[in-house]
## 1
Amino acid sequence: MAGALLLLAGCATSTVETPAPPAGPAVPVAPPAQVSNLPGPQSLPGWADEDHLAGFQAYAETCRVARDAVAVRQCERAQHIRRTSRPVTPSMARAFFETGFAVVEAQPAEGRTPLLTAYFAPEYEARRSPDREFDTPVLGRPAGWSRGQVLDERAVIEAGPPPSPPLAWMRAEDLFFLQIQGSGYLTFEDGSKARAAYAADNGRTFVGIARPMAERGLLPTNGTSGDAIRAWLAAHRGPEARAVTALNPRYIYFALDPDDGGDPAGAAGVPLPARRAIAVDPASWTYGDLVWISAGSGNLVGARHGYTGLVMALDTGSAIRGPVRADLYMGRGNAAGAEAGAVQHPLRMWRLVPRP
């Protein structure tokens, strides 16, 4: 859950925010009888340049989360193609989408900016015992915690003694970013690894620190990427950095699980395929929806020109609100994090409607 100006936009992945089952898409969906009148994926901007095979493989790996009967049948069709065609070719993958789906463009909600941001699964160093550098405890879920319970703000929690033995110790800025992402991976001094999974939160609203850092002159307006913010916090570790991170009162507690070497699961319950999964607003989309995104040039230093392609709606987050708002999962590690930290792009989105 962080990255782009995720710190500005306030992104949080599903590991932090697991809402009730999606209410259903606010994106217009035509009745089955009218789907035949909708344009096909061939009409999408950039469709001819897509890696259809990569999109097909990601879809086939994750489409089982779909619940709509027509979507389930298209998923079964994809599984049949994979079983009977060895190998599946790019032309077969393209034909699968073009014959099986129509497209409907999502329209922005009034007052909400169409925006693509990105997030990743961070990998950080940790220690079993504290030292001068690794002096910030990773805390487990408080006893008796229940979802929605309001606990102390970040500054109060960090100022007090740990309520229970810490699970691990981290650099302060690394733990802050781990909490923004909602989950991540830790490597200890003996080389062992663990996954830090979301276990609880303090019930406080997330507040991004990028904008106030720019307003205070701590960073330039176009230089508030995730990497820039983390570097500033590391260079000012101690009371100065804590005063800035305290602007975000939200605090996340973790559980440590074995690292299976894969990617974390999103709110839909399946591992997130790198660069092919998005977090969406569950009031506007349904988990398992097949989506086409087209995002133009970003305005942050180091931003890529744009992002276009097939993705699956598999996750959600507290800052992801509205029909044309998405958070693209980039993968694990530093390279994914560096790219995610510079994603803040204007966005268009289309729902690929399964044909009966």
## 2
Amino acid sequence: MSNTQSRAPRPVADERVALKARRVSFSWDRTPLHWIPDDPFTTHTINVLHLLLPAGERWFVHVYKQVLPYIRDDRLREDVIGFIGQEAMHSQAHDEVLPHLKEQGLDPTPYTAQVDWFFEKLLGDRTLPPGRAREWWLMERVALIAAIEHYTAFLGDWVLNADELDRKGADPTMLDLLRWHGAEEVEHRSVAFELFEHVDGGYRRRVRTWALAFSALMFLWQRGARFFMENDPTVLDGKASFKEFYQGGKRGVLPSTAAMVKSIPRYLSCSYHPSQEGSTAQAVAYLATSPAATAAEARTSNGAV
């Protein structure tokens, strides 16, 4: 392991908060198939999160448990353990949406099987001899997670500020799931990058794994949106296109293409640090009012599991 950067990035401010897993639960009985009224494309574009995140975040947890022995800083170790707890809860919460989709005529299994293969086989553990090869593969995956977390934090910041979804009458339970998750992504946005810097930090590895992460996310996301649109039983000849995504960004119901493009050079900058993205204060404020998060806190305070 080696850090090849002459100057390690530093946070713009010390916004660290103690990370904890909030044991949220959601009821989907009243959530319609198109939870953004009269907008199946935007609904399903965001629904892709439910397909990608359960397997992806289980993979995060699996990799981070392997890297714990490499952490030599007690504060960072504490953050990573908190991160693991939050990501495990995210995976569970999104996984619980899938039976609801199936009940409404959209069986996600054919697509989630492909996502499971991607994370468990393609990016999973490999039969490698102990030593440099095994360590190299572990560090590659740590760097991949840092790159992916750049985009989960980007999406978390976006959904916390996506007021147009409220104006469109989006289902409040789904919005709370997305904003609870998004707020925690903003809350822990520095952990993955700081872990990568701690155990390796090589700039070439950062660029290489960013390219892989960005390409994979774009590929999987467009396939997921297309899968939903083609299999939605209420949509005739459903299609997913970049034009519709672009227009959704212009309307404020999806992240804008311009904002996504501008996020690329920020991550690749030698002076980048995730604390430059989003607002911890905003994230913490939402978590203090989120119906699911406050209910979870009340159950914990009352001693309920």
## 3
Amino acid sequence: MDAVGSPRFAPRWLELRERADAAARAPELLHPLRARLSAHPSPDGLVIRDLGCGTGSMARWLAVRLPGPQRWTLHDHDPDLLALAARRMPGSAADGTPVTATTMRGDLAGLTAADLTGTSLVTASALLDLLTLDEVEGLAEACTRAGVPVLLALSVAGRVELTPADPLDGALTDAFNAHQRRADQGRALLGPDAIEAAAEAFERRGAAVRLMPSPWRLGSAESTLIDPWLRGWVAAAQVQRPELAAEAAGYLQRRLEANAAGELAVTVHHTDLLALPGGGG
């Protein structure tokens, strides 16, 4: 889960979270995905589109876990992130065959089935909560019409557990979730409702959908990630409910001190989704 107010798209933030992301992603979804891809082989290898790629962490995690030559197209709005993602792509797949990448800058909202012609797989990570219902429906429509499998990782689930517990945890969680569902420039973001909306959208179009939990489990070894996440989480909650500000200041100080002392543990719940058009898998 990303806290609005944290540097979500800054390379430093994306680098901080990459290890936690990799540990959280659900490897159980790779077996049915590999089976689907091997059942529909392409003579030129896999063609994979990574939507909202950021620094390319999803591609770095997945490319080395899939066999066969791969051609990735990395999509993002930010040209600097695209350049960084392309530079950091692995050079070989799980079986040592080559992996290459190109970049594409632009808006994902208009993606169509025609755009996905020849595509073997669509992936995204930590993206769904930024989309509207219409955008999720459009993504499902494009992918199912094109018959392309979809792996969407690390979608926020709206649940956070902090240990030790604090009486303000629940109020801040509720306020943060409400902020995730905010209207942004006229777009009603789905936030933690996105994963359910996506599952329903794909299933309604005949896809077989599998969901697996993919929580961040952060302890003292991840204190450098907990610090900015916690600051952004509390800041977003206060934006949504300004009346929490007085209590939240003390809360944040207590939590930061506990984190610095190695005494804070955080579980941030996410869900991974695999959709196989046509009911395969």
